[in-house]
# Entry
Amino acid sequence: MDDLIEKIARPDIADLAPYRARGGAVDGAVLLDANENPWAPPGAKGAWNRYPEQQPAPLVTRIADLYGVDSDQLLLTRGADEAIDLLFRATCRAGVDYALISPPTFGLYGVAAKVQGAGLLEVSLDENYAIVPDKIIAAARSNSTKLIFLCSPNNPTGNLIARQDVVRIAHECTDQLVVVDEAYIEFAEASSLTKELADLQNLVILKTLSKAYGLAGARLGTVIANAPVINLLRKVLPPYPLPSPVITEVLSALAPVNMAIFNERIAQLKAERQRLYTALPGSNDIQEIWPSAANFLLVKLNTKSDIQVRLQASAIHVRDFSALGEGMVRISVGMPKHNDALLTVFGVGQNKTPNRRTATISRQTKETQISALVDLDVAEPVSIQTGIGFFDHMLEQIARHGGFSVILTAKGDLHIDEHHTVEDCAIVLAQALRQALGDRAGIGRYGFVLPMDEAQARIAIDLSGRPALRFDANIPDEGVGGFGGQMVPHVFETMAQHLGAAIQIEAEGQNTHHVIEAIFKGFGRALRPALAREGTAIPSSKGVL
Ligand SMILES: *Cc1c(COP(=O)(O)O)cnc(C)c1O
# Structure
């Protein structure tokens, strides 16, 4: 391995020690070592007066877990863009060394090469936009090449590079770093190449939170490689690449309870990509479209059509790639309504998805971390994980019988008891429902059920915006499955408050499990007509709910 570093590192930085400074606050210490201001500015949400850690430990741990690698195998950077720049700085001597790319590909490789004064070897993709491993290997070996960039899925062509091709290139090009840019891998039906790191000392993988995790504005990229390569890159890393507010906000956005929502959104984007890929070829404005494993589609527009003008008139921005040929554009996959707008301009917008009432809530306190995604206009998916089996089952009843989709994940202080988790889940679900309801236009507003066959629960609901609970059911304190009986009225009290609803519940029965379940099911059944959209009017003589 040291052998590899000797071969690829710029000799003039080989002896450079990484910049070392304290960074971050130190509990109980008097910090007079960095010329910082002892006061943070008014309103600062953290110790912004202190320089941040160069590689903040909590974030390193979280990202290592996210990508399934060890902490010493990664380096956090200001976006993957900075990682590309660091690779050039650490390896390429100006006017001497080369990087190899396979165009058409991500433009920044070429820009970073120019900035560093490195040469660029171009081995074009073939007519199907696939890489040509034989040519790549031959070209890399016959020049002083330090870096081989393989973008998979490739931007802008959207296709994935076969794992065996990457492995073969890395095996044969042992004097080079083989950099696999996986900026879009989360959208592909393929797993990351991180597992190959054990066998391939010269493999480098680039990741970003900008695409699949919706954090382009936070600027957070990751280099993943074996420790000697990471240590080399540290030598050229700026002293404090990550701003403190970014560290805090990214950690909060990547809370493990949010992962189910990220996964659902990735799945939605993939489904929408398929919808566009299927519908767009029906348009006279499209000449060709390429399959994509990323969150965008490369298309060739009919050069005789005025589609570019119509897109502009509708304020729909797509990316021009006319350098690849007349009419070539890259279209990012948006929300269903954005894609509807796009399809309409292309004249193939018949399957308009109704404007869906959705909301997400993420709530993090010292007692609980909870996130929820609610969609009132579809029935799937329903996925509830609160850590309390019986409560999961009960919330699932609300969603199933209510006919709406919920993904709710909670991590609470269950070692104390279930109270905080149950209450906060009720708050989050109710807030998500309330937010999704918006101005409540068109809803049925009222819901009720008559006695259910075996369990005799009677529930009436008015989504009036005004909280009130009437609860009349005798539930023994011991409850069911670690779910205390007194939590039942508490859940609905919380729901009434945070949903803004009058909820009236009466139930009786012999078996506690049945009574509780009948209440939750009945609540869902009562919600169903109350949430359902019947028109557009606000169902109140006041005109406001
Ligand atoms: C968007 C993109 C990046 C940049 O990611 P950031 O983390 O936002 O800098 C890197 N590589 C490719 C191929 C991209 O398309």
User: Anything to note?
Assistant: The mean pLDDT is 94.
